[in-house]
Design brief:
heterodimer; A: mainly alpha; MetI-like fold; B: alpha/beta; Rossmann fold; 11 helices; 37% helix
Chain lengths: 295, 261
Amino acid sequence: MRKMENRLFIGCLLLLLSLTVFLLLFVMYFIAREALPTFRELSLFSFLFGERWMPVDLGGEKAFGIFNFIAATAAVSFLALIFAALLSIGAALCLSCFLREELRDFLCSVIDILAGIPSVIYGFIGIELVTPLFIRAGVHTGSCVLAASLVLSVMLLPFMIASLSESFRKLKERYYPGAEAMGISLSYTVRSLILPQAAGSILIALILALGRAMGETMAVMMLVGNANLFPRILGKAETIASLIALEMGSAEAGSTHYHALFAAGFVLLLFLFLINFTIGLIRSRLPDIEEERYL
Amino acid sequence: MEELERKGEDSGEESTAAMELRELSLSYGRKTVLDRISFSVPKHKITAILGASGCGKTTLLKCLNGMIRNLREARLSGEILLNGESASALRTEELCRRVGLVFQTPTPFPMSIRKNMCYGLRYYGKRDRSELMRITEEKLRMAGLWEEVKGELDHSALKLSGGQQQRLCIARALTVEPEVLLLDEPCSSLDIVSMGQIEEMLKRCRERYSIILVTHNISQAKRIADEVVFLHQGRLLERGERESFFAGAKREETRAFLQGI
């Protein structure tokens, strides 16, 4: 009887798991299926490296090149990542190693709240606070790659601070007592032991954050200006995510425009897969923090 | 750097005790963990602190090397003298350096054996390679580990066995030339062979250092201790030289502990 129950239970779990996997595969398949017809009309090369995007016939020739969008996605994400990395490593070190426990717990919950703010609100905050600064600095309308990446970096912070401070705290608990017992200061231990040991965790947190940054749509769309231009720090640009969000509603179903948007989404998806694959590769190469100390 | 050169025996020639505790008490909030403990730790001897789990042995060690000061809830009173000098006048880092502590579980740093040995030395400003090498060899020999690892100093310390890791940690603690070495049940996670090796090394080390060994292993205390202190529920119940302590325990609680009741 008990055996039957166990089997039933495990059977249910397997069913749920396969359902999840199936759903994922289905999403992939669906996007790929809708994307493929694009290439009946244009070559993969002209799609990926073309710089003209003219989805409807307005006198000129139609063109579907997403090179600038890919470049803008990369530019906005990497810039945001650089800002977020600097801030989050410092904040996480401070939180995990130098603050009193009560203060740390309080600040961590505040940071968690930051993570719960919807991205459209971040977009608003960006329009209210960031764009006026850029207008004053002489950027027309204030929308630019830098403005978008600044706001995006704030959106990446909660996740990065949480995961980094967790790794730092573990390392400190494990190694600082040994150093402390020799009279070695915490700040020296942090610099010479904890930070170098955390390099792997830092890299993984950065790559995960990069994935989030590339897919972020709303806040970036509100601040980046949305013009098909090659991204410059103070110039307008348009990311893949905002391209899809802006044009999907107006694209005629079944048209090349429609399929091309799916293809752009597929490209974004491939980038994210590549990122996850890289993380897996790094994880398997680096010694795990949890690694047993004893043989 | 001068202070690193100074050996235990040179400083405070007039005092015969390496450490002296006077009415040392410690409480967390309302809970009293240590209650008016007084005893002195003779130089170049092994003083064993015996007692059941939770009687305050580990806390006592953290008081002695000052690490307890970093716990904000802890209230410390009484006096500790280190070679005649009041410990409360010393900065925590200075006290930690002069009173080394080895933990129950080995805590090697995730780096090579050589870097583990040089970590503290570099912090205290030693840069000269041959000097670093000399100290590394000297301390590893003292720990009885040199012959086992001399060919693989650049291998990760995490690859060593548990007993080797613990001896490495003791050798590492000695690199910064503490005057007193505290050991907190250093053998409790180790097998009998490793335990024997560590006991041998402690007997050798007592020529240079004064040692305080916390243990709940009575036979270990019988084998290597010169002096024995018995703690019970945060209070010092009995102390004495090894023979007299084990031959004639006076208190009921001590006898019960020694008989394993």
